[in-house]
Amino acid sequence: MSQREWIEKDFYKDLGVSSSASADEIKKAYRKLARDLHPDANPGDSAAEERFKAVSEANAVLSDPAKRKEYDETRRLYASGGFPGGGFQPGGGGFSGSSTFDLGDLFGGGAAGDGGLGDLFGGMFNRGGGAGGATRSRPRRGSDVETETTLDFRDAVLGVTVPLRMTSPAPCTTCHGSGAEPGTSPRVCPRCNGSGIVSRNQGAFGFSEPCDDCRGSGSIIDNPCHDCHGSGVQNRTRTITVRVPAGVKDGSKIRLAGQGEAGLRGAPSGDLFVTVHVRSDKVFGREGDDLTLVLPVSYGELVLGGTVSVPTLEGRVGLKIPPGTADGRVMRVRGRGVAKRGGGSGDLLVTLKVAIPQNLDDKATEALRAYLQAEEAGGFDPREGWAGAR
């Protein structure tokens, strides 16, 4: 795709959001469209596949704050006529004489590689000279791809390797991404000398435009690959093995370099970002690097003390309860929590909670009444010192 085509695309329209949409609105719109249009959900539907590609491309730009800002600024300039073919005319808006006005200066440098928008669009703006000094067009890197996976709580804490099956643009297996039929190679475009751009003069201005012969790629393929039709990219369903590190949190993102969308004609692939969701557990909770659980105990175990068995993610341990322990006390089992990045592990925090029997037989009821009478005779008052006592 040429630079002009990129600018003229309406990524907001592709995602069905306004140009003032927030990052969350853009993310929500993309996720819904990606689910509805995914090739796995629409087998054989070429229209849905093209829409899927369009919304993926739109999300790659609008989800990146820096790319979105540059895209918005450039489209505003284009709409005002600041590009060739727009409403801007030399000498008609305060500029006159024979001086050359370089639009690239608006973006911190007109030549490709300066780090501003001139670099983003590969030297679209050029000082009225020819293309002889232009650098060769760089291959367009593939877009980043986002996907999601959901893990059980224990797998997220202990770490796990999961396979992800996904359909996305990948290097063509026939031409290995070159775009040329096996046994042949692309040749340097003779018109632009491999730069991908050609220059033309319009009055006092010099403009650079994508080369029509090579469509801005800098190379020409005489014998396109019969499988990918010269793009070097195919939609493929593949299984990627993702190693999830121990201790990953809900909402964390894992980056797999080079596993995203393939670049055109052998250009580097984008990255794959996997968002991890973690299911809740019936026994354990989490506070930072510590695990938590509530352990039911009897009244007698708190009063008399003893050792109770406590579950951990890797088995069970014994927990010693001191005599006279209060209900609700939190006890710490060191080193039985979540693995830390810098080494070591968090702790297991055990909250002791008295379990009240719902049905007592006659013998147990009489024994409890006898205990209460003895307790009262011994002078024990559970509300002594309490602010609400009278």
Describe this structure in words.
The longest helix has 17 residues, at 46-62. By secondary structure, the chain is an alpha+beta fold. The model is unreliable at 84-137 (pLDDT under 50). The strands form 6 sheets. It has a 4-stranded mixed sheet with strand order 10-11-15-14. 23% of the residues lie in helices and 24% in strands. Helix 3 (23-37) packs antiparallel against helix 4 (46-62). Among the domains are: 1-87, Helix Hairpins; 285-377, Sandwich (HSP40/DNAj peptide-binding domain).
Straight-line distance between termini: 84 Å
* Strand runs, count: 15
What is the overall silhouette?
elongated
Helix share, percent: 10-25%
Summed over residues and divided by their number, the pLDDT gives a mean of: 79
CATH topology of the domain at 285-377: HSP40/DNAj peptide-binding domain
What is the succession of H and E elements? HHHHHHEHEEEEEEEEEEHEEEEH
What are the segments in which pLDDT stays under 50 over at least 5 consecutive residues?
Answer: 84-137
> Can you tell me the CATH superfamily of the domain at 285-377?
Urease metallochaperone UreE, N-terminal domain
Oligomeric state as shown: single chain
- Assess the beta-strand content as a share of residues: 15-25%
Task: Provide the CATH top-level class of the domain at 285-377.
Answer: Mainly Beta
- The gyration radius over C-alpha positions equals 33 Å
Structural class: alpha+beta
Number of helices: 9
How are the strands of the largest sheet arranged? Answer: 10-11-15-14
Please outline the major beta sheet. Answer: 4 strands, mixed
Secondary-structure arrangement, i.e. CATH architecture of the domain at 285-377 = Sandwich
